[in-house]
Amino acid sequence: MALACPGCSGEMTQRTFEANYGAPVVVDLCLTCAAFWFDGMESLALAPGAVLDLFVLIHENKRAPAPLGTALSCPRCRAPLARTANMQRSTRFSYWGCPAEHGHFITFLEFLREKNFVRPLSPLEVEDLKRNVRSVTCSSCGAPVDLAKGSACGYCRAPLSMLDAKQVETVVAELKRDEAKREDARQGKTDPLLFAQLLQDRAAVSRDFRKLETEAPYLRYNLAAGTNLVEEGITALVTLLGRHR
User: Do residues 97 and 176 both lie within one domain?
Assistant: First the structure.
């Protein structure tokens, strides 16, 4: 049954995605709030291909997210959700967790941080950005950020962030490897050229992503005042991902 969104109380949509092991994962999402509800450990069970499917889904949702309520409740037990902070490598992300461990509510942007797709800009990247544009849009709240005054949003205090192209490259390579293995298993045979083909696929992915590593990735976008670095990065990388699916 459809769940009531903790953010806006509207009916959430269910989508089914492939899991690493066992049954597929049914994810509840709210496009109005731009957020997911994950029961239990569903977020960790997602296969690499499922993570990329969610990545594309985030890209396709063009609407601006509605402000979340101040008191969020678990859609399973109605208990108040607790705001929780966590770390993925060096990137901090946050979500609202159920005290009874029924699951957690997380915005699209925080999900990208959790999966290490989005990271804060380094001091060098901030300086490069200042030389090309005066202001950008905060990816967390949408407020303008004057780079002359700092590299964090003056309203929500979130640091400027961008997509981590290296992480996306890694996930794409894993996806291609897993797809090749599954296809081989479905055909009931072992391809003697499988290892060589995987190396070729890995090299092809690396060539495209290396272009995003040799220069500041945002310089490849149509950079202008008010640019949202995360949204621009998603657009560029979804286009690139389409060639490797």
Answer: no
